[in-house]
Design brief:
Number of strands of chain A: 2
Largest sheet of chain A: 2 strands, antiparallel
CATH class of the largest domain in chain A: Mainly Alpha
Radius of gyration of chain B: 18 Å
Radius of gyration of chain A: 23 Å
Distance between the termini of chain A: 55 Å
Helix content of chain B: 25-40%
Strand order of the largest sheet of chain B: 6-7-8-3-9-10
Oligomer: heterodimer
Order of helices and strands of chain B: EEEHEEHEHHHHEHEHEEHH
Largest sheet of chain B: 6 strands, mixed
CATH topology of the largest domain in chain A: MetI-like fold
Helix content of chain A: over 70%
CATH superfamily of the largest domain in chain A: MetI-like
CATH class of chain B: Alpha Beta
Number of helices of chain B: 10
Number of domains of chain A: 2
Order of helices and strands of chain A: HHEEHHHHHHHHH
Shape of chain A: globular
Strand content of chain A: under 5%
Number of helices of chain A: 11
CATH topology of chain B: Rossmann fold
Structural class of chain A: mainly alpha
Strand content of chain B: 25-35%
Shape of chain B: globular
CATH architecture of the largest domain in chain A: Orthogonal Bundle
Number of domains of chain B: 1
Chain lengths: 278, 249
Amino acid sequence: MVIRPLVWQRIVWVLLALITLATLVVLFFIIGFITSKGAPVVTKEFLFGMPERMGKAGGILPTIVATILLAFLAIAIATPIGVGSAVYLCEYTRQSPITRIIRFATDALAGVPSIIFGLFGFIFFVIKLRMGWSLLAGGLTMSFMLLPVIIRTSEEAIRAVPHSLREVSYSLGGAKSKTILRVVLPNALPGIVTGVILGLARSIEETAVVIFTAGSSLVMPRSLLDSSRTMAVHFYVLAREGISMPRAYGTAFLLIVSILIINVVAYVLMYRFMRKLR
Amino acid sequence: MAAKVSIHNLAVTVNKRLILRGVDLNIEANTIVSVIGPAHSGKTTLLRVINRLIETQREFLRSGEVLLDGKEVRRLDIDVLRRRVGLIFATPVPLPGTIFDNIAYGPRLKSRLHKRELAHVVEQSLRAAALWDEVKDRLQTSALRLSGGQQQRLCIARTVAVNPEVIMMDEPTSGLDPISTAQIENAMRELKQRFTWILVTNNVKQAARVSDRVAFFLSGELVEEGEAAQIFTKPRDKRTDDYVSGRIG
């Protein structure tokens, strides 16, 4: 039997559409499921209250604070190092064995399971450097985990800036450093921001690293040297130890919402910045 | 009078290929010198050697002398050199950003100017490049929205704003219509009192219209250099004659 090309087109189209649809269905199923179970739990008291009886009752405010502190600490450490490395790799070196080693190391770092990062952070920061379980140890370890993401995305973004723009800056007497600061980085910003957002989302949802390095004490952190529990860890403990499934879903729902908010805010800010350039 | 730019026995190799050899050329201040010749004759490389933009390329060797006011360019501070010798590219490349920011880019690199001074520099530069009347009401809009001809004049204004001594142009009108081309040629003539111009062009007629002197390059060699009238009417070399009369090209 010969299938007419037009019919064949249709069949393939339907097939591809179904596959795409399947992805969306999975995503919306997860979001819908978490929302239906979690959204009713989220009240003002749940958001801003202190936890009682190990999280069986009360709110989750300390875990929200801890999540924000830990994520921003990790980003604040990883962004300058990551973007700096990307600038170095793209602008200050040529292909050489050394850059190949750096790139290989970056890729290897990206492939390390998070629990290994957690273990490393525990041994190095918590024990060896005597930081104890703390947000600081957690943030430092997490920043290592984010580095490859930020380096790779920044590198791509910097390479995508046309060479002609650099030449214009040079030919107007712009030194290399000024060219990078005023021409290359502003034009690479959307890509860099994408990497940072990916990193931010990853540090919010990470559990293994946090349990090992920041611990899981359910208290309001008073300084970066306090042990604390992030939302993701809280969710894990509540579900794992069967403390309160509804509250676990409530926490999960907030996690999803916060990642959504971060994405939207970041892209709005970036759009505003880019509109000035275009 | 000493030449503004003088080149002695210049040879350049890029990626192990000899691009220029045995070039001797003197360029007097406040003249327009056209560099003509078919593709791959080393014209663009010549410009990039003078302002040392060629140094961004990896495998590059240079021998001979390139002097700016009698001083070897390799001994000058590279950023100062590039402010003294501007370069305009074949395709106009506006920096992403407003018209104002484009013109102000160079002056801002050098020093922190007062807002009023900066606005003055921007206006004078745009006037010099005959673009002011077209853009004075929209300095804060994106430079990328200008037409091709306007963009190239913007690039000239941007270079003028740095107040260089020499302005080099690499086929600046190759992608432009006749009216835009005429505007740019007029700007060159009017600014001859302020700058020394080195114009690389594929367009022999353009060279005849604007230049005081013409240098003809072929396969990396300077075949002949002289007064524009002499080059176009009584060239000494057969190859020059063939090229300017259109027999080869």
